[in-house]
Structure formats: C-alpha cells, structure tokens
Write a structure and sequence with these properties.
The protein is of the alpha+beta class and 182 residues long. The protein has a domain of 67 residues. The protein has five helices and five strands; from the N terminus they run αααββαββαβ. The strands form two sheets. The protein has a three-stranded antiparallel beta sheet. Strands 1-2 form a two-stranded antiparallel sheet. β3 and β4 form a beta hairpin. It starts with a helix and ends in a 27-residue tail after the last strand.
Amino acid sequence: MAGSLQDQLLQAGLADKKKASKVKKDKQKQAKVQRRSKTEFVDDTKLQVQVARKEKIESDRLLNEKKNAESQVKAIAAQVQQLIKVNRLSRDRADIDYNFTDNKKIKKILVDKTMQEQLSKGRLAIVMLENKYEIVPSVIAEKIKMREPEKIIMCQERVEPAAGIDEEDPYADYQIPDDLMW
C-alpha cells in the first residue's frame, strides 16, 4: 500500500473523491490567503496541543517540586534520627528520677547523678526519638533544633558561673541549688 494517506483512504472506501478534492481545495485556499496576507494561519489543533504541552510541563514541574520537598523532609528526619542515635548517652546506671514537662504533661526519665547535674546546668538536653526520650549533649541539641525543633523536649540555657559576684547583693550568701527536684 504505497501512496498518500488520501489515496489509501480512497482505495479502502473510507473517503470519496468529492470530500478529498474539497479538503485539497480548502488547503490550497488557505495557503494562498496566507501567502497574500503574509500572516500565519492559526491552527486550532496546533494551538490546543501547545497549550496542553505547557500545562503538562507546569504540572510536571509542580509535581517535581512536591517530590523534592518530601524527600528533603525525609532527609532532614533521617539526619536528626542519626544525630540522636549516635550521640545519645547511655543510661544503664541510671537510678534517679528526673522530672520534666512534655506538652504540659509531667514526664520522668531515669538518670544518674552526673546527668542530673548536667541537665540542670544546660550541658545536656532531652530529645524525642521514636516515642522515647533520649539524653544528648546540648551541642547536638542545637544541631537538632536547627533541623527539627519539635524533637527537642527540654534544653536548659547554659548556666556559666558568674565571673564577678556583686558584693552589694544582700542575698549573695544564699545560693539557689541547681538540683532542686519538683
């Protein structure tokens, strides 16, 4: 079956000679008008195809942005999880209850004496990992806070001993203990 599509349709009986000649004449008229007016003829189907292509490109771009954002969130969550798992402190010898608040609820975690002191001084922090509380150094807590602040449960401000004590302070002799339990 060699020949043009028009010849093939005529041979198959799907089109007749009148329709074929009419289509041919219309095409020639259109080309003639286009040459004379020196303007391009706007083909509706081409225009629709271009619009559909632009819409497809835009929707693909939006979908890619959404996927990238989701993968970014997953990557950050994985980084935080790794930071906590690598830097958490072992609480094998913990024997003291340390109370803290989490979402307006009082919770407690077992710690040892040094952890208790360091928590109250702000050198350690309590973070959440897979619905469990873990203790990490405050430096790591700051890194976690930059990525996912909702993972930080308790992180005291670091309390450094004052270099100079005010001598006129009437309460200078009365120190407030850092290890008060409530």
